[in-house]
Design a protein that fits this description.
2 copies of one chain form a homodimer.
Chain A (H helix, E strand, L loop, with lengths): L15 E6 L3 E7 L2 H6 L7 E3 L2 H10 L4 E4 L2 H11 L4 E4 L6 H12 L16 E7 L5 E6 L13 H5 L1 E7 L6 H16 L3 E5 L3 H6 L1 H11 L2 E5 H8 L4 H11 L2 E5 L5 E5 L3 E4 L13 H14 L4 H15 L19
Helix pairs in contact in A: 3-11, 9-10, 11-12
Chain lengths: 338, 338
Amino acid sequence: MSDSRFSSPSSDRPTFDVVGIGNALVDVIAHASDDFLVGHDLVKGAMTLIETERAVELYGALSGAVEMSGGSAANTMCGIASFRGKAAYIGKVDDDDLGQVFGHDMRAVGVAFPGELSKQSVPTGRCVIVVTPDAERTMNTFLGVSSTLGVDDLDESVIAAGQVLYMEGYLFDRDPAKAAFRRAADVAHTHGRTVSLTLSDSFCVDRHREDFRGLVADSVDLLFGNEDELLSLYELTDFDEAVAALRAECSTGVITRGAAGCVVVTRDELIEVPAVPVDRVVDTTGAGDLFAAGFLHGYTTGADLAECGRLGSIAAAEVISHVGPRPLVELHTLRDDD
Amino acid sequence: MSDSRFSSPSSDRPTFDVVGIGNALVDVIAHASDDFLVGHDLVKGAMTLIETERAVELYGALSGAVEMSGGSAANTMCGIASFRGKAAYIGKVDDDDLGQVFGHDMRAVGVAFPGELSKQSVPTGRCVIVVTPDAERTMNTFLGVSSTLGVDDLDESVIAAGQVLYMEGYLFDRDPAKAAFRRAADVAHTHGRTVSLTLSDSFCVDRHREDFRGLVADSVDLLFGNEDELLSLYELTDFDEAVAALRAECSTGVITRGAAGCVVVTRDELIEVPAVPVDRVVDTTGAGDLFAAGFLHGYTTGADLAECGRLGSIAAAEVISHVGPRPLVELHTLRDDD
């Protein structure tokens, strides 16, 4: 429950602004109607974990698709690099075509991706994303090798070298990853770093509520989530009560509320930041990931919390204006103070 | 040199409007500057064949990319399906991720793709496409297993079942494929079908001019090409002379001229068809492929040659308005006579 941003600095100057840990996935993006969701029992807007058979069935039923690298924390690290911040990523891919694609796209934007390709012959994970005409995305994730990440896959020197550790709640669906998160948080705190977590998905929070609660209370300095996820975490229905619960446990909380912007809370402050309006929302994939990228870039470059929220909103607005979960323009060019 | 559209019909009614044969490729599309082309000795607008090492080098130097199914004749077959025509495709992919992607995307739009996945452990071919700010695409093709297509890979019952056989000149870079083209043309003619060919690329024509000349003179009823390709075929510099040479050898020729539209020539007619204007050209990848799709759809549904050209222009205009080589809207909805 320390806030290492304000604790005594580590003896080492951090090499990276942020080190992310998450499910390394390639997105398979296809457009479909609302009827398609109903016909395939898909819950609009949710992320559902699927096994091989279901992945094959869904993919087979979809129209022509586009493949591009995704993964929540990976998108966030790419966003930070696009702001010209320094990011590193820990996540597992196989030595197959999609694993090669994932690694290429991380390195191409300048994110350090020090892991080796897995030789376990478990395929690289993929997220089959159905985009409906209202631009909502419904995600069906076949985790593949990504979900086998455990303590042994952590490069502790990388974690120690990051000013902020950023962990993706999606990965928290498997026990080895839970152990890895606790270990990663310990390593970060030992080196005087800030530990952040994104809750990722209200269903994921629901499946692992007690573990999430324990992690947040014991180890998280900076928590990201949306309104649904926060309410699920504390099993509350009132937003203000949930915010109060969060403030008692975590030094900084950042709650996104879609088009209503975000709320940043500390023990002493509550700051509301409006969303950046966009002409047309094309695909909301990556909105939360890029919000976190902007916020973290501000956070690691000394901006105040309102400015962190503003940078988050700028990055989210860019990514929802086009298909795909990663920015198409250099985000640093969108900062009007540059 | 027969024109089977007007010859006595085969005893079998065709199952498919068009059967395409080509290099089965997945496109890897990335944006880069003109300086990138210069720095990597790339000839803007051309298609260059590359080997593994060069493919790795170029891919490594490019920024984040998007993967989507491509391949010239494959794009054309998808366009025909998008007009609600019936298309089949013959081309080779490996049993790897990209091969799965390719097969999915063909079947998803309703193109029959009867081939089995190759077990040769030669990877699925890919085309690394660099899109410059002027929307021009420069293609670097690692052919992989696609270029191993030979006579044994032809399903003659499929070729016999197609009203038009459509062969992609790009495939003509290897001897086994040349033999396969001659065999496929023979099978088609035996069943009273029309044989068409697209020249694909002036450099490819230049590499294999005599073989192309022989194929056109002996076997092709309907030839597609652009101005550069036609001039290269006959080693001429004057367009009118090249058109005259084509008319002497081939019953129907369709020459595209970019924004200037196309010229359709038969022994008796010369028809000029204007291009359909577009608000903004985003990516010219697939322009020629989709032009052929529209033309062939008209041709196989009894339209006159001017209308065939108009349908080609409509399809080409759609595909150059967005990133990617295949239509994003159902092309049949763009026919104003529907």
